[in-house]
Amino acid sequence: MKYLILIALIAFASAEWEYEGDVLVLGDDNFEIAQEHFKNLMFEFYAPWCGHCKTLAPIYSEAATLLRPQGIHLAKIDATVHKNLAQKHQIKGYPTVKFYAHGEVKDYRGQRTVEAIVEFAKSNSVKVEL
Fold it and tell me: What predicted TM-score, i.e. pTM, was given to this entire model?
């Protein structure tokens, strides 16, 4: 039985991550694993109907493309689907962006520009050997 569980965990951990462009798509089933796997993880809770989220999407995607080669991953979580995860992170509005590094989560309250997102992520990230 122990071996079956170990095999399942290895298979899940080595599974390919789902991306939309360079933005990682996360949910209840893989969020904690992503936090363990990616040392620097910025994540956005969004709602598909939210106008501000739609405006942020291409900006966030461009920042993801710039940061991913540096070991900083940007992810998104549909809070209308993954309600438990949104509740755990006390999400009250959309979009809400947070950053995970050094074992802690920080709220991102900066401007919604590529430059501001990139600067915040770089200044709060853990150095990763690529």
Answer: 0.85
